[in-house]
Amino acid sequence: MAGMHSVCCPGKNQHTSQWQQLEDSIMDPITVAQADKIIQSQIGNYGTEEVGYDSALGRILAENIVCDRDLPPFNRATVDGITIDFNAYAEGVRSFKIKAVQAAGEPPVPISAKDECIEIMTGAALDHSVNTVIRYEDIDIVNGTATIKNIEIIKGQQIHLQGRDKKRGDQIANADCIITPALLGLLAAVGKTNVLVKKVPRIKIITTGDEMIEAEKAPTPYQLRRSNGIVIKSVLEKHHVTADVAHLADDAELIKKELARCLNDYDVLLMSGGVSMGKFDYVPRVLNALGVEALFYKVLQRPGKPFWFGSYKRQKPVFAFPGNPVSVFMCLHRYFIPWLNASLGITDRPQYAVLQTDIRFAPALQYFVQVQLRSNTDGRLMATVHDTNGSGDFSHLTDTDAFMELPLDQHEFKQGTCYRIWNY
């Protein structure tokens, strides 16, 4: 397709043979594995930026994080009670005069005699003169004296020692990891209030179709409410990526004008609709006219066979998905999210599940079946197939958890066999 830049944008009442000529010039349908390889060859790098740690959840860390001091930074009590010098206990002392009460955050208070103790709260720092903490439950306090009950005491008990978790300068997080709530806690603990993260690509979502109206409006008997745009946007937000959304009518010149602007202003285009062989499916023709190189058109899969993928100036990928909702949903999770993760340096961690029923699928296509997942008592992930009414039936997506990818070279898939899944 490279170099084919002639405009082919007939109006609704003008259908020429140019579309068929364009179709003939594009390579034959390819396999899922081939499509995946081509898409992964187009991964990008969008640089880094510094953000406040309180807005970094879900972002990809772009630097190694080290401790600015020991964790914990002092010997700290792990229970409420008293703290003593164990040597006194070893010598037979069982009653200790309470010298002071110390709360967490206060400077540590020393003892000056073996038969003294400090009444101490959880999290408070221990002075070097004490080395053992005893719970309130294990003592009796009368008139300012704490007496240990008839229990065994171990030296150093109930103390979280300084540096036990990490030492100053130790690395606590590696670049390329996802910033989770737990990591946010560590960032706060080491004073890393600004953190370097990977930039995400600027993404524009474009849906097409005259028959699609706003969700807020009442459709005629032959119209549909738009859903693909909000679905794609929501999936991206689940992955902590924001995107702009637009819907275009089936007007070739309008589509061309908007795509020309978006190719200039955004890093990635995610499109839905207008990629099949209908008279008003203008998207491939317009992309060709704008100089977007087609890398493949049509994949041997169900759902989502009429999937178009290309690259603008070899640096801006364009994903043009079919308009059917299930096709969009599957292609988004099977192709775009892996591309996004690879571009951000996130390691692929494949998941697999065990098929619970026999399936027979005759067409020479790679089948992505909707499944509901559950774990059995052995800890194995089991997949139950949900029958649907094709790629336009998205009502069952709320009843299922993943697509199970079935191999292209098979027609029968037996209960008990294991296949890869793509979680929603």
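Above is the first protein from milestone M3; the second protein from the same milestone is given next.
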Amino acid sequence: MIGQRNFVAGVAIRLVVLVGTVFLFVASLQREDLGAAKVVAALLVLGAFFWLLRFVRLTNVELARFIDSVRFADFAQGFEHRDHGTGFGELGEALDQAIRKLRSERHELNEATRFYEAVLDDAPTALLTVDADGKVELTNKAARRLLVRHRGVRAEDFAVYGETFAQALGGGAVGRPRLVPLVTEGLPQTVMVSAAIVQRLGGLVRVVAVQPIQGELNAVEIAAQSDLIRVLTHEIMNSITPVTSLAHSAVDLMKSVDQGDNRDIADARMAVETLSRRADGVMSFVESYRQISRAPELKLKSFAVLPWAQELGRLFGALPAAEGVAFEMEVDPPTLGMKADPDLLCQVLINLLKNGAEAARGHGDAPRVSLSIQLLASGEVSIDVADNGPGVPKSLRQDVFLPFFTTKQKGTGVGLSLARQVVLAHRGSIAAAEAPDGGGLFRIVL
């Protein structure tokens, strides 16, 4: 109120002065002998007019400066000090409060923007955007870690991960997730792709979420297999145990009555002994599969890969299957380290090297197996076991990891199934592929 009264009083005084000077100027015009007075009166009128104009324009100047501050986002300006003793203090205080509020809101907006950018960038789900021109951008870290092999920004450039995945990026139903195969680092996996349409800078952008779910699918499959094996082995053991016991008792009984002079008794003894051996074989067979139903317990530790791989090579060289088989080993970079269960992983690789050596020895005159461990661009570690044997037929590359499945005449179908369980327990993946020279290749990515 005081500021308003000061402003009104200031305007009134200047108006009175302006009216007075105008009156004097008009009066001087009535007298022809006052030429100099006319000039002075005119100057006084102009001076009073500009005095009033300047007083009134102070408000416009402050408002214009405030608007420029907002327009150019210059929120460091201040207005409270511009009082001039004329009642503009209230205006200056109001403008200064507005600037402080805008400054605070801008700070909060920047903080919120940085927070949401961090959430988006660190989100565990890979996010991509596809604009109206078909340009694809990797939006966050998960996407940049998952998709590292493409060159280009068009949907068709992502065909290196599979044609189906490239088609899913290029179009498809919005808001309806799809299961799509994705090939990364030579390993096929299943991902769930969903999309939504959002508006950005006046245009529509398609946001695509890519969620790898192969680990979850593998876990469900392993759990189902373990449950099935647990039930089957339990029932078989319950049924075969009394048969085995009775067979052993029958063998002992037949030994006591077989004096070698009765052919029928000798034949019966032979039949009972055969039955006993088969019963023991079935018991041993079932027992070997019981270990598949038990999930491996990991003891994770960080270790240097090179000395661990060298020790692995020495263990392989001591196996009978390694005799006459050339062994090659590479670790890139030599200073590579990893966190895993070295003992369980060693068992897996020894089994893979043994299988590779046996396959190579029966296929050519210069059998060879190799172990290659390298750091991938995604930050994961790739472990390749390759041989120059006949390789794994493409139609069987998924089946070889199933329990009970084997292509060996004396195989049990346990080794690769256990290897898969160990790798999956590490949250990794394993797949069979073709080696560069046409042999077999098993790739583990951890």
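Note on the second protein: The CA atoms of residues 249 and 297 lie 39 Å apart.
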